Amino acid sequence: MGHQVIHRSLDGTRVRLRGDHDLGRPFTSVARITAGGRLHEMSSGTRADAAAWAEDIGVARFEQEFRVQGGRLRVGHAAAVRDPDTGQRDIALAAVWEGRRFAAFTHIYGGRPADAVGFLSGLRITEHDDGISVAPAARRVALPEPAELVKEVPGLGLLEITALTGETRRRLPGWRGAAVAGGELFQDTVDGQGPYFLLALERLLVTVLPDEDQVRHVPGRLASLSVDAVR
User: Fold this and answer.
1) CA distances (Å), 181 to each of 13, 184, 224, in order?
2) What is the pLDDT of residues 116-164, one digit of tens each?
3) For residue 199, is pLDDT > 90?
4) CB under 8 Å to 166, separation ≥6 — which residues?
5) What is residue 196's DSSP assignment?
């Protein structure tokens, strides 16, 4: 197999992709984190990904910076968003933790800089050569479900990769899938969104969201892509 990359999800899961596909696109990871009874969504990617995210949500500038866990925490307010149900305008505080190459980023509605510092202090943040991982470092902080790793592979579509657990296994359809190397392949359809594929492997669950004109080619192309969890 021609190319190989290894990426790390926020929960520490390391995913290796091998094959003759174009594997050079960047990846991101998304994790849900509960802290003090509140649910947060955190993402990770390159520092450029974090900057693009901040721009997308309307952060005109970062207002404060802190040194946190060996990296730089930058905070700034996003553009106000009107709640369609209440009519209120909600303002989120954007928080970006930057390491040498990678970054982790989240937002806190109605938050202050101290809230961002407090949230991150409840996590152990570690930058590796292949991504960022986070782990609970305080009481009442938890990752209630596996993180997802998201990567686009031309010719296949968008891949969403997560650890295969009892919880994530519930996403599989009730019928048997087609036997493939290393696991089972399922095809299903979401109303209004078109077909998608699920690849259940020994330790991973891969969701493939293909381009509309590539659907019929996906099973064959997946056969030439190896996806596995490595230590």
Assistant:
1) 21, 8, 10
2) 999 999 999 999 999 999 999 999 999 999 999 999 999 999 999 999 9
3) yes
4) none
5) E
Answer positive or negative: Cα dihedral of 74, 80, 84, 86: positive
Cβ-count burial 47-70 (b if 16+ within 10 Å, e if not): bebbbebbeeeebeebeeebebbe
The whole-angstrom distance between residue 5's C-alpha and the CA centroid of its chain comes to 16
Burial of 202 (0-12, 13-18, 19+ CB in 10 A): exposed
What are the boundaries of each domain within the chain? 3-26+146-230, 29-142
Cα gap 136→124, rounded to integer Å = 6
- List, for residues 34-82, the tens digit of each pLDDT value: 999 999 999 999 999 999 999 999 999 999 999 999 999 999 999 988 7
| Cα 21 to Cα 225: distance, rounded to the nearest angstrom | 7
- What one-character DSSP code corresponds to residue 174? S
Q: Which tokens hold the place of 40?
A: 């947060």
Helix (H, G, I), strand (E, B) or coil at 32: strand
Assess contact for 10 and 132: CB atoms under 8 A: yes
